[in-house]
Amino acid sequence: MLFSACLTLDPDDTPIIDAETRIKRSSTVIGDTFNVVYLPPEPIDSNQSPPTVVYTFKFWQPEFFESESPQIRRAKMENYRNLYWYLPIAIPSSAQILSYYIADIPNQDSLATEDYLIYNRAGKPVQWSHYRLAHALLRRKANIDTVLSLLKTELSLYPNSDDAYISYWSLYFQHAGRTDEALATIEREIAEVRRQRRDDPRLLEAISLMYIYGMNNRRRAYEITRDIPDTYLHPLNLYNRFLIEPDNDKRELALAAMTEKYPTHPLTPKMNLTHLLFYLSNQTFSSYRDRGAIFAESILNRRLTALRNARVNTYAIRYLFDYYASLNPSKALPYVRDVLRMDYDREVYDPLTLLGFAARYADTKDYAGLAIDLASKAIEAIEADKQKPLVFRPEPEFVQTEAARRLFHQDVIGCAYYYIGKAYLSIGDDKSALANFREAEKTCLSQQAELYFEMAKLLHKLKDGAALDYAIKSLAVKNSDAVQAWLNTSLKPKFKKGESVSSLLSTALRSAPPFSLTLLNGKTVSSESLANPLTLLYFWSPNSTMSKLLLSELQLLSAKYRARGVGFFAIDTEDDLRTVKSSPEEFAFSIPFATATPEMIVDYQVSLLPSVVIIKSGKIIYRQLGYCKDFVSQVEVALQDALLTSDASTALPNEKKRKR
Asked: Boundaries of each Thioredoxin domain copy (predicted)?
C-alpha cells in the first residue's frame, strides 16, 4: 500500500502523475497543486467505488497566534487506468494544506502533509515551512531540541518570521527551566534582533506577545509596545495595554480602538464588560458615575451582536436604568418600556435585570403597579428557565452547577415576592403586602435581611408580637445600624426582664456548617482547624468579571485586618483554581486561594457571585449573596462591628481587675 503527494509552485506547469516514478521516489511537497496518489494492494476493479480524500485547508499565514477555523473538505479520487487512484487538489494562494487522509484506509496518518517541507523551484524551503513542521512535531510531543532547531532554521532563512521568534524564545525559556540565565540569553538576542530590525513595530509586537504568553510578564510586554499607536496594535497587545494601562482615558482609547477595529474578536466583549463593571464598582466617585453612563450609552448605540451575546448590553441597560432612576424614576422608564411587550428580548432582559427594575419602583407609590408587573415577569422567566437544561452563559451571575442553579431559581422567586410585597406596602395594602412577604420568606436568600426587617416593621404596625423575632432575624443575617436603631426605639420597651439585643441575637445566629478547603499549594484547611477568631469566605469565579475585579479590594481588606485576627479565603466556585495557576501574575495576591466541595456551596446557600460569609466563633454573623452597591464597604463595616464586640468582651475582665 503506497501513498504519494506532490506540490508544484508553478501554475503553468501541469503536473504529470507517473505512478512508477512518483510513488517510488521520496515524497516532497512542492507548489500549489497537491496530488494525492494511492496504489492499493489489490488490482482496481473498474466498477469499484472510488475512495474519498479528506483534506484540511487553513486560510491564513502565521501571525501572532492567529488561527482561523480550518476548512475540512472531501473529494472523490479518480481511477487511472485501473492502476492507481489519484486526486489533484488546487491550493488557493491564501491557504496552506495542513493534513489529508484517505477515508476507510487503515494505518492512515491524518497529519501526513505536516511532515514535509515546502520548497520553491530553487530548492529553498518557502517561508513558514520549518515553523509549520516544528509545530507539527511539538503537537506530537517530539524532542524539544529538534523543534528548537527547526525554529532556528526558519529564523535564519527568514528573519521576519515573527511568530517563530515567539515560539523559539518561549520554548527555549521553558526548556531551560525558566532560569535567570535563560532570560538573560533571550534578552541579549532580543536586543540584537531589535538593532538589526531597527525596532520594527511588528517585531516589537511579537516580542511583547512572547513576554505575555511565554514568560507571564504583562508589565514588560506593555512597556515594549508603549510607543505604538492603538490602531496599529494586534488585538492581543491591545488587550494587554487595556489591562495594564493605569490612565483611565488611555484605557478607553485602547478599548475604542479594539471595538472599532476588531468588533468580532472574543476579547472585545470582555474588555467592554470589564470597563463597564469598573465604573459600576466605583460609584462613589460622581465623575465615574457620569462617565460610566456615557460609556454604557455608547455600548448600546454600537448595536454589536457580539456585545449582546456576551451580555454586555444587559449590564449597560442595568447601569443606565440605575443611573437615571437615582435622578428621577420617570427618567428610567425608557429602559423599561421594551420589557412591557409580550415579545421582549429575554436574553437581554434576564430575571435579575427585571428584579433590579422592580426593586427601584417598589418603594414608589406612583410606580407600584409597574413594580408588581416587572417582578411577576421575573417569576415567569424563572419558571420557563426551570424547564431548560443548564447551559453555560457568558458572564454568569450564579455558580454554574445544577444545585446552585436551583438555589438561584428559588432566590429570584423569593426576591420577586418580596418586591411585590413592598409595592403593595407603598400603596397601603398591608394585607397583600404581608401575604407576599410570607411567600417570599420561603425561598428568599439574597434579600433575606431586608425582608425580615420589612416584616418586622409591618407586624409591629399590625401589633403582632412576632415583630421582635423578625427584627432579630434580620440582624442575625446582616447587622445594620438602621435595624438596631429601630429596634431600640420601637421594640426595646417590650423586652422581657434580662433580655437584650445581644442575648437574643446570640440564639438567632446560624451555626456555620463544617467545611474543608483545598489551598493553592494542595494543603487542606477545615473549619475545625481555623485559628482566627474571625474568618471571611469570599466566593468568586474567574468566569465572573465582577467577582474577579473585587479581588484587589479584598486584598486591601486583608492587609488592613489580617493583623487583627481576621482570616481570609478566596474560594473559586467553578474552576478548581486552574486559571489562578495558569496566570500567576494576574492573581499575584497574598489572599489564600482555595477550592471548596460542591456540598459547601449548597450548605452556605451560595448561588450568586460574588458572595461573602463572615464566621465568628462558629456562627455566621454576616452574609451578602450577590453584588450590591457598596459591596466592599458593607463588608468592612461588618468586620469592624465584629471586631468591636470582640474587643469589648475581652476588655471587660481587665476592667474588673483594675477595680479590684
From this structure: 506-645
